[in-house]
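## retry 2 of 3
previous attempt timed out at serialization; input unchanged, resubmitting
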Amino acid sequence: MKIADFEIGKEKTFIIAELSANHNGSLDLAVKTIEAAARAGADAVKLQTYRADTITLNSDDENFIIKGGSLWDGLTYYQLYDKAYTPWQWHKTLKETADRLGLIFFSSPFDKTAVDFLEDLNVPAYKIASFEINDLPLIEYAAKKNKPVIISTGVADFNEIEDAVNACRNAGNNDIILLKCTSSYPAPIEEANLLMIKKMSEDFNCITGLSDHTLSNITAVTSVALGAKVIEKHFILDKSINSPDSAFSLDEKEFKQLVDDIRTVEKALGKIDYKISLAGQKNRHFMRSLYVIKDMKKGDIFTSENIGSYRPNLGISPKYYNEILGRKAVKDIKANTPLKKELID
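## retry succeeded, writing output
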């Protein structure tokens, strides 16, 4: 599966910088943030494409007031999304910025009009946010564009994930990526449950990854070792910016460290192969081998008193020790001589 020219699921992890609301209402800040994401080593930058009135209703009724211990308690849903949204007229400029910097640009649509808008921009993939995973008509509509669909699973149970995957497949689209996600902002590390990355891949026959809202990089880095092929993390230019998502976003230095650590893990993972590494081959001389440890005359019998297993590895492997006992020396042998086949009768 490819997103633009990036091959997903191979050796290299696809690392996404999520802009979300971290532009804080400024196009200039959004452009500078994308530039910083490129410097930090991101492979892609992702936006969120909605308007407040495409995601919620403009009501101050009790049902529409956010509560429950989130960062946004006390705001209405409309107030939050009206502040957080990325103006649609910015998208073209932001895509051009990403293109110029070699970043893949795509977005999360939150309704069908957003999908149509993003199609006009020719984005190479669609991301379905955790809270939209039950919007099967939206998922099907995006999947019918025949581009990879990335789905966060933070608030979904098995059946809801299965429904979302089936919505894509029923639309004729099998290019599906599921992201393990804890939909808490920030997310407690003890709720990351990273073992589910492999499990979801097996259960749904999909590439899997992680959308990470924890405050450290260890969760994302560990997930790569557990099979994550896509990592998404919120990115902010300056952590002093008071945006709705600033509390759980990485700045350029932190994101660069994340990228560097993931690339190091990729090198360490290597491949499944019993061949001895080049470094290992160079150090095989530290292995044991058999040595003559007492002077021997031609015809003397090899015993436990005159041969033994020692370093360096210049003689016969110790695995032949029992076979050699009782056999004879073909010539005189001095002590400390590596035992070779040509010395044994």
